[in-house]
């Protein structure tokens, strides 16, 4: 049954994902709760992605409301903003078109909204998969915060974000649409790393955040995806989003938000180790928030060392044992 005013809007930007779009469409059609709408935003795909979505729309519309928005290629941020602009759900969620969600995703979000009495935002755990759908090691997320049984405040979640216990990604949470509308929160158009200065703003304006100790999302790490590309050409974008987040922090000087800024600086510096542009632009920001994020930085460094050991040295040891 299609609901006139849906509980949840799922925005799906689509761009050249013909290899994966079938899995995404299947997980949406197989949802155990149909109280949601889907907004597909084709961002000027040049492969068969748009054709595949169009072919499946009649079937999907038998179960849920589904819209298709077409635009010229303007990037992920623009596509997400376009979807949000026509959303009608009480809550909104951004789903990347090469990933998948659990079949009970909408059902669980609905259940925990009732359980926590309509929280502003809900965060949930996730799993990482490779391009073949096989589970792989994840660096971010999986913090103890998901196991808590009470509603969280924004300080708790921002501090967890600063320690990489919660991902910065826009697909790692569901939020009330009124949060982003009332506070004029949008993705920075034409910029990579657009989640860096988006997610912390949503958490900051969320008074109650509900933890869900379930892996409701499967993030696909694949060759050519934004998070696994060579990012050496993206220096200006990295500086832009952090400077924007730092400007937001100066308007809202909250210690936990300062820790998030510091974490963003450290992760960016570690990604651009040989970039004088990045270092010169971000080092002053790092110094400005140093007192806020020192603990978070130590946690991040420990996590990074463990990740390197498990994925590099662990593999070397395994290879030697096999000889």
TrEMBL record:
CDD domains: Glyco_tranf_GTA_type (cd00761). Pfam families: Glycos_transf_2. Coiled coil: none annotated. The keyword RNA-binding does not apply. Keywords: Transferase. Residues 9-113 form the Glycosyltransferase 2-like domain. The keyword ATP-binding does not apply. It comes from the Bacteria. GO terms for molecular function: hexosyltransferase activity. This is Glycosyltransferase related enzyme. It comes from Leuconostoc mesenteroides subsp. mesenteroides (strain ATCC 8293 / DSM 20343 / BCRC 11652 / CCM 1803 / JCM 6124 / NCDO 523 / NBRC 100496 / NCIMB 8023 / NCTC 12954 / NRRL B-1118 / 37Y). The lineage of its organism: Bacteria, Bacillati, Bacillota, Bacilli, Lactobacillales.
